[in-house]
Design a protein that fits this description.
By secondary structure, this protein is an alpha/beta fold. 63% of the residues lie in helices and 10% in strands. The chain contains 20 helices and ten strands. The strands form two sheets. The chain has a six-stranded mixed beta sheet, sandwiched between helices. Strand 9 and strand 10 form a beta hairpin. Helix 2 packs antiparallel against helix 4.
């Protein structure tokens, strides 16, 4: 129940909803039950029963029954039985009208509550996900995250909010029905309520099994979304390796699992409704036999009209009771989804700012790594005792074999990860003491894979900055991108497709460089920005990078050594350690040097 109420708390502000919702629900239930209690005087008139006369007007306007009996008696005396029949029908009509007005009002309030809760919950999940550290996204499947934000939140809306409605509106209706039944005949009502404990035990047993099926179903759905995301995103590989059958079989396995889990959940959920109905019918049969025998033997104070009204009202009791039962059964799927959502909301980023962190707005002296070691969650060190200094204005290159730790070093500087031991400082300040926002604001990052969005070229370069077209064009010209942009159908307003698929690799890379130029950062991190390009594209991108690197401090991860020969210092990284350092010419002079071997292999 803790998670249930926590999910409801996202509908804040609750004060403006709960009070009017409770009031309208109570009034809707009150007038709804009143419609059936009015059957008694109506039947008395129709069956020509003796009608109690009330000569004196009740003093309190809240004594509803006495007020009704008084006015009913007055109408009966003045206008006869047909007039009394008209009076009762008129009161019933007004009661039905008021019941439905208040019912609609409560439903309208509930829909606003649901919309507010779902919106706030989805925003909270997305906000927390965006702020999680980079390592989280490396370990988590993207489809699973999307499933939690979309389908799990939707499931909470469909079941949790509806349960809240049943727990309030239907509960009020149930209470008013029971109260009216006790008022008509307390002994018959006690006999009828024997069914409730039996139903409760049965439904609680179902609920335990349903929670398990619901959890499995939502996980299977997440797997399906992840599989579709991976398959559609890698369709070139799927078709290139003729792996359609393999992907189809994987999807079939997950789809069958999802089908079985959802069928099991639905079968158990739907079992509660016929069970409740069967129990209700048998209780009504029991009441008919028991109450009818008392009336026939003259042992009951109930009149025939009161007994018929009792049966009619009791038949209505089963509806809110069944709705409450069904709602709590359906809530198990929502609770399973809610647990997955709250798990994501409660997930705290491993990289967090200190309380009152320092802020930096400029880079003045140097970046220094001091005895830095690092390990991912697997536990094995991927960096050991890394030491280097990047002075302002210098270009430092990282080279070495794949998997040696070059990209990990580059990820540590903007603090995507924290070192296991040692420290990285900027202008003498440990970056763990600096706010992440201000640290990354002075850095521009260009990666091997250009990360673009399904938006216009203008928005991809501006990327959230409030700037004009002239500034974007200036950045594009420096990045050697302006000419090809102007050749697009709509120029800077051309939409480039999912991840920029409408552009070539070199064009995508030049857009990402233009985005970095626009930010005008004093520090650049270039992670193999030209390694995936053809010769012509590499030349254009390299020219753009050269323009970008002017008067900036740059850390370059290089695959092709020809691109970093002019670096101020080259660090050779191998198996998590810096094994050589120096300029291009200095490293070539080392006998049996690792850099010299790399250079020889690339010159072949």
């Amino acid at each position: 129940m803790k998670n249930y109420f926590r999910l409801l708390s996202y509908a804040k502000p609750l004060g403006g909803f709960i009070i009017p919702f409770v009031i309208t629900s109570i009034l809707a239930s009150l007038f709804g039950v009143l419609n059936f209690t009015l059957l008694i005087p109506l039947l008395n008139v129709l069956f020509d029963q003796e009608i109690m006369q009330v000569a004196e007007k009740p003093a309190s306007i809240f004594a509803l029954k006495d007020q009704f009996n008084y006015h009913f008696s007055q109408v009966l005396t003045q206008y006869g039985k047909f007039g009394a029949l008209q009076f009762v029908c008129g009161v019933i009509g007004i009661s039905v009208l008021l019941a439905n007005i208040f019912k609609y009002s409560s439903i309208r309030l509930l829909e606003g509550f649901k919309a507010n809760m779902v919106s706030n919950l989805r925003q909270a999940v997305f906000d927390n996900s965006i702020h999680l550290h980079l390592g989280f996204f490396s370990n988590e499947r993207k489809g699973n995250l999307i499933s939690r934000i979309v389908t799990d939140v939707q499931e909470v809306e469909n079941s949790i909010a509806n349960t809240f409605s049943a727990a309030t509106k239907e509960l009020f209706l149930f209470i008013f029905y029971i109260a009216s039944l006790f008022y008509i005949s307390w002994n018959l009502t006690l006999f009828a309520l024997l069914v409730i404990p039996i139903s409760g035990i049965f439904i609680s047993t179902l609920v335990k099994r349903m929670r398990r099926d619901a959890g499995e179903g939502q996980q299977r759905l997440s797997n399906l979304i992840s599989l579709m995301d991976e398959a559609f995103g890698g369709m070139r590989v799927v078709k290139g390796f003729v792996a359609e059958k393999f992907i189809i079989n994987k999807f079939k396995t997950e789809n069958e699992g999802y089908k079985n889990a959802i069928f099991g959940l639905a079968a158990r959920r739907e079992m509660s409704s016929p069970f409740s109905e069967i129990m209700g019918v048998f209780v009504v049969i029991g009441i008919l036999l028991y109450g009818g025998s008392l009336i026939l033997d003259g042992k009951s104070a109930l009149t025939a009209s009161e007994f018929i009204s009792y049966i009619v009202i009791f038949s209505q009791v089963m509806r809110p009771a069944k709705d409450i039962s069904n709602a709590f059964s359906s809530a198990q799927r929502g609770l399973a989804s809610g647990e997955r959502i709250l798990e994501l909301i409660d997930n705290q980023p491993a990289i967090q700012d200190k309380t009152n962190p320092k802020t930096i707005s400029a880079f003045n002296n140097a970046i220094e790594a001091k005895q830095v070691s690092f390990a991912y969650e697997s536990g094995q060190d991927v960096l050991r005792n890394i030491n280097f200094i990047i002075n302002k204005g210098q270009t430092i290159a990282l080279v070495g074999s794949s998997g040696g730790g070059k990209s990990t070093i580059a990820d540590l500087i903007p603090r995507f990860y924290d070192p296991k031991s040692g420290a990285i400082t900027i202008d003498g300040v440990d970056i763990r003491d600096v706010s992440q926002h201000s640290l990354r604001k002075i850095m521009g990052i260009v990666t091997q894979e250009a990360v673009l969005f399904n938006d216009t070229i203008f928005n991809n370069i501006a990327f959230g900055e409030s700037i004009g077209l002239e500034e974007v064009q200036a950045a594009a010209k420096i990045a050697n991108a302006h000419d090809f942009i102007m050749q697009q159908p709509n120029g800077y307003e051309t939409v480039i497709g999912d991840r920029g698929t409408k552009l070539s690799g070199g064009q995508r890379q030049r857009l990402s460089i233009a985005r970095a130029i626009l930010q005008n950062p004093p520090i650049l991190i270039l992670d193999e920005a030209t390694s995936a390009l053809d010769t012509e594209s590499e030349k254009l991108v390299q020219e753009a990078l050269t323009n970008l690197m002017k008067n900036r401090t740059t850390l370059v991860i290089a695959h092709r050594l020809s691109t970093i020969q002019n670096a101020d210092q080259i660090l050779v990284v191998h198996q998590g350690q810096i094994i050589e350092r120096g300029t291009h010419d200095e490293l070539l002079k080392l006998e049996d040097g690792f850099y010299k071997k790399l250079s020889s292999m690339q010159s072949l």
